[in-house]
């Protein structure tokens, strides 16, 4: 199994440089203890309250690799402090990545308060997904009620199965806009019918269409 070692200190002081080196050495030993293959070692000097850290952003990107199974840290404060710690822990746990720490000499055991907050964050995220799906359904229903007929207007739906459409049906954007749908609802409706399109793209293409009609 592969693991990533993450080390952090908060300042550039010489004593912190020693701490950074010690973290790395101890985490390499922890990896050997649990027979992890070290994929990479990330070291950085930054405040734990800051989420805009090059090292932590690199870590969050790397753990998307299905071959990565664990992240090794000195203790949970190395990941972050305050709200930043909760946000980063949530991002790691969501990818089904195990955290191992020197402080626990094995898998990290979260405090009761941190566990409770993470459960709340997960619940909120789940409801946000549900609300997003409801928004898409609502947009589709409104479109149909206003005369939108996907079986006629999206004739190629279902072709090239497994591939997302990249074309933007400007005539449908104009039609839905005239029927009173806002740009977010138009984007949600078209995504529901298989078009990979954002609210910003809908708005931009609509403005381009309007400008072309004025010239």
How many discrete structural domains? Answer: 2
User: What is the overall silhouette?
Assistant: elongated
How big is the Rg? 24 Å
The stretches of 5 or more residues where confidence is low (pLDDT under 50) are 155-166
Strand order of the largest sheet: 2-1-3-4-5
Summarize model confidence as the mean pLDDT.
Answer: 84
Q: How would you spell out the order of helices and strands?
A: EHEHEHHEEHHHHH
Q: Summarize the main sheet.
A: 5 strands, mixed
Overall CATH architecture of the largest domain: 3-Layer(aba) Sandwich
Number of helices: 9
CATH topology of the largest domain: Rossmann fold
Tell me the β content: 5-15%
CATH class of the largest domain: Alpha Beta
Q: What is the name of the CATH superfamily of the largest domain?
A: Resolvase, N-terminal catalytic domain
Helix content: 55-70%
Short description:
The chain is 55% helix and 13% strand. It has 215 residues and is of the alpha/beta class. Strand 4 (98-101) and strand 5 form a beta hairpin.
Protein model, in words:
The protein is α/β, with parallel strands linked by helices and 215 residues long. It has helices spanning 14-33, 54-62, 76-79, 82-94, 112-145, 150-153, 170-178, 183-192, 199-214, and strands at 2-9, 37-45, 68-73, 98-101, 106-107. The protein has 2 domains: 2-110, Resolvase, N-terminal catalytic domain (Rossmann fold, 3-Layer(aba) Sandwich), CATH 3.40.50.1390; 129-214, no CATH class. It is built from 9 helices and 5 strands; from the N terminus they run βαβαβααββααααα. A hairpin with a 4-residue loop joins strand 4 (98-101) and strand 5 (106-107). Helix 8 (183-192) packs across helix 9. The protein is elongated and about 65 Å long.
